[in-house]
Amino acid sequence: MTTERAVTSRLFTTSVIEGRIDLDEKYDKAYNNVMNLTRDLNEEESHHALNKAFDDRKVHDELCLGLLVSILADQSKASRHYRDLTLVSRDALKVVTETLIHQIIGERFSRLSESTRRQLLWLVRELVKTGINNVEGVVWCLLRQIAGGDVSQKNIWLAESLVDILRENRPWLDKFPVIVASVTYTYLRILEDHHAPQFASLRQKEVHFVVGLLRERFQDCLMIGRDLVRLLQNIAKIQEIEAFWRDLIHNPTSLCPSFTGILQLLQTRTSRRFFVVRLTPEMEKKIVFLCTDVKFGMQKRYQEWFQRQYLNTPESQTLRCDLIRFIIGCIHPSNEVLCSDIIPRWAVIGWLLSSCTSPVATANSKLALFYDWLLYNTETDNIMNIEPGILVMYHSMRPHPVLTTSLLDFICRIIPNFHPPLADKVRLGVHNSLRQILEKRVVQSLDPLFDNRHMDAELRKLIRDTFPEFCSNSVPGDVKPEDFVAPVSSASVTRMDLMVETGLDFGSSTVNSDNDVNNSNHIGEDDAAFSEDEEEPPILNPPPSPAPNKVKVEEISTGVSTPVTEVVEVKPKVSDVNSVEEKVDLSKHLEYLESDMKTILLEYQNEKDTKQRCDQLQKLCDLIFSEDLDQEEVNNLTTCLCHLLADDLTPGTSLLPQDISAESIQESLGRPLYVLFDNLITLPEDDHRRQPLLLLLVEMHKITLHVGYHFLYFLKASNIKTEKVQENNECSFLTYRDLCKAAGQKDFAGFIIKDLRLCSEDDPRVLSWIIPDIYNSFPKQTRGNAELLQLVLERLDSSQLHDLVCMVLQGSLQMFDNSSFATILEKSLQWETVEQLFLWQLAKAHEIPVDCCLSVMPKLKFTSHSATVTNTHGEALSNILMMLRRESPSEILLRTLLLREFRVEDPTVATILQYWVQRYEDKMAKLINDVVNNKPQPSPNKRKRNQSTKANAVPLDQVLSHLNHLRTACGQTTFFALETMQDTLQTAQNQCSETQKKKYGDLFALIEEEDEEEPAPEPQRKPKSNRGRKPKGRKKQESESEEESSEEEDVKKPSRKRKKNNQVGSDSD
């Protein structure tokens, strides 16, 4: 028995080479504890024994683990022990799920015995059926264990077992969008492997299941992004998939009302989470090791091992796509790795491509390599995802010219053939990729690649036709083979930050792809940056020219810039523009629009009646809903609308009526501009017609920021019009967030501030009217935002401030809280006096405690009767004094005040000390005594609950400076005559250096003055003779007599020391 236990495992397979592991000992111990506890007991007694044992927290985890091992190792006891586990566990089976995720499935699934695997799937089925917390993590780990390109019996069994579990528990699955998307991605991928006749029943089961998910949970599947399209293309010949594919292309809204079409998917970058789920943890470790730890030139034996292990069958060739997508999307080496001799990513990808034995898999692998090129967006995509593609071609020109030419041919032909309706978009994406590669200096030049004289003439012509702007005008034969060198040196890469990646955090709970991958396309300080003249115009002083958008489109399509003289300027007001010039200006843009749209705009231009104009704009909205506008049409329509609506955008008077009422507010919404807004907010969020109108407003907002605050005014005013302010306000203001998202702005707070800043300049009344709704609708971005608060306060008058104060007191408005006030206060020190005073009025309304101001106290400066006030903070200090005046003194407050730098010209500390001494004399004496008796260097073990409290002792010199100021500036001498203060001064005097004793001699002289004024203190101090140092102080006077008793002789030495200190004090007098 002993020998058997030493070589076998309850859960894992063992061999002569791979014996028992450390976990086996742990699992055996836990299992034996459970068996010993329940041996010879019936079910009820066993349950009672376990329930009692689980009360002990120390053995809880071990017993949970023991029951888990029993379930996995013994099928006969599984049901009973699972029932015991669910009934007696105190942590919602957290120990069980974490053990499954991190130890059994995550790390050692491949070593599980066959019986253990079957029990594991039985357990997962029960956990899912019961709805245990975190079981979704267990399911995700099992998805990873379904290996791509593996049609072995074990892998097929796992895929079928898991799909059965998920089908049986579909309501549970629908609760987890991330798992829905991961399951869809996984089974779409492995369907490609299950094409053989023997897998027909399994394939049909998987197809039915995954198509059901796609059709019923398409909103969840949208998070997969562009790789969803890639997987669907690979299996598009399956009948059910083909039907879904037709709906995806021709009837997108049947899948999801807010889904606009395949372009939306292709423009969404796939999260690294989905690339990870298609590699088993063992594959992931090995491929990461190969790309981050193996030296270039030493990789052959590792590649051969990986080939034998995972890529040695015809079916396994499909795994190459998964590996390439993982390397591109997840392995982003740091500059340190890039500059080392570690094998680069392009070399690993080149090996995967060149060693592929299947033509279909090779074509799919090339698509996987260039997939992020097709609709590359410099703003949202990561250059690290396109870098391997260009480097594989560059570095393969000499050793593997066939690979380079095949990749070049592929990238040229994929542009028109990937999806013909999107050929222009794909061309633009590839051009953006190449332009970004050159701008970031991933390669110095494309000439050696595109003008290779060894290249086939037909391919050279194809390249020149496809990429004319990237091909030089020189004769191709002039390029020498010696030019085919490494495109970027290590030193060059070091200077660029574009390769920096924060790490591989696959366990993150977020599913947002923007958080998965570092999107920074930053150019290093030493790199040459291109002019941004061709980019969108900066949104600064409205209204700017709309032409750059048009120029951008034309340059992309023709490669020729439009002359600046042809650019049409949008004027701020129609009345400022000559009528002849108006028609000429509009005609240049109207010619790009359809006839119906052109007619409506011309009628609007000639119409003078406001109501008729509103009707014309409504017709335009209806036309927009029914048409599919391309970007060029949107740009030209935007320019026309900004020009025609200039009177509405800059009316010259306040949008807010003089007398605010429901009727007057409704009348103010009669502007034609507001027809666009009204159509937007009335459409449901999932209505596909909403997106074109939203994009149109985004383009208008880029041209003139006036659109932003007009929209905010409309949102609040429309709620008042419907008399459902509280009910609709929060919901309608979320449309403004949609505007920000559609504009691609990640800084929502900055987006709000830009709009409100223009509003504060144009219409301060509107700003004060809408600001409460801004704070209530977007608390995360606004509350505690110092920049926004200053923007509001600098435009307020006293009446508007009173309105805000009333709303704060009513509880309907919160502009900041205790945690953010200290930061706001510190920043407010640079504000104007009126702005600071308004801030303190709001602080009082918010009931900000004085504790929130203490951290700023040391930074506040003040000088009495100063000729300049630029470096003083009288506004903050006076208000803090008023707050302190209402507080009872405490050690925290006192220490904070005494830590303030002493300056004779600053009466702040002395003032509040004087105020407290007059009202809390005894308490102040006790607090000052406590401060003085603390050691200058506190113990490091002392608890630190407040930065300015007990953890930081006040330097003695600082305390004495403030006390001396209290004595001189406020004439406080009686306070120092208190017994406690006498004690304090005596203690301070004993701790002082000779220099300090001279410096504060007048203060210490109060000790002597006290003793001389009371020559017979014996009767009064006798009851307190056992407290403090007073008995010693009293006996010092008596020690000069030579007739003292022996008891008095015992204290003679300290008496002399005190007399010496007093003499020093007298000398200084």
Any chance you could write out the topology, listing elements then pairs?
Blueprint: H1 2-7, H2 22-38, H3 43-53, H4 57-73, H5 75-88, H6 94-105, H7 114-130, H8 135-145, H9 153-168, H10 170-173, H11 177-191, H12 200-216, H13 218-221, H14 226-234, H15 239-250, H16 262-266, H17 272-277, H18 281-292, H19 300-310, H20 319-330, H21 335-338, H22 345-354, H23 359-370, H24 387-395, H25 401-417, H26 423-439, H27 447-450, H28 457-466, H29 490-495, H30 513-516, H31 547-558, H32 579-590, H33 595-606, H34 610-626, H35 631-644, H36 646-649, H37 662-668, H38 673-682, H39 690-703, H40 706-721, H41 725-742, H42 748-762, H43 764-777, H44 779-782, H45 786-793, H46 798-810, H47 818-828, H48 833-845, H49 874-885, H50 891-898, H51 908-919, H52 921-933, H53 956-969, H54 979-991, H55 994-999, H56 1001-1013, H57 1018-1021, H58 1030-1038, H59 1046-1049, H60 1052-1068
Domain Integrator complex subunit 3 N-terminal: 59-464
Subcellular location: Cytoplasm; Nucleus
Region (Disordered): 507-549, 931-952, 1008-1069
What attributes does this structure have?
single chain, 1069 residues, mainly alpha, 60 helices, disordered N terminus, disordered C terminus, INTS3, INTS3_N, HEAT_Ints3_C, cytoplasm
Walkthrough of the structure:
- This protein has 1069 residues and is mainly alpha-helical.
- 62% of the residues lie in helices and 0% in strands.
- Among the domains are: 1-105, no CATH class; 134-268; 307-516, no CATH class; 913-1068, no CATH class.
- The protein contains 60 helices and no strands.
- The longest helix is centred in the C-terminal third of the chain and has 18 residues, at 725-742.
- The chain is globular, with a radius of gyration of 39 Å.
- The termini are far apart.
- It comes from Cherax quadricarinatus (Australian red claw crayfish).
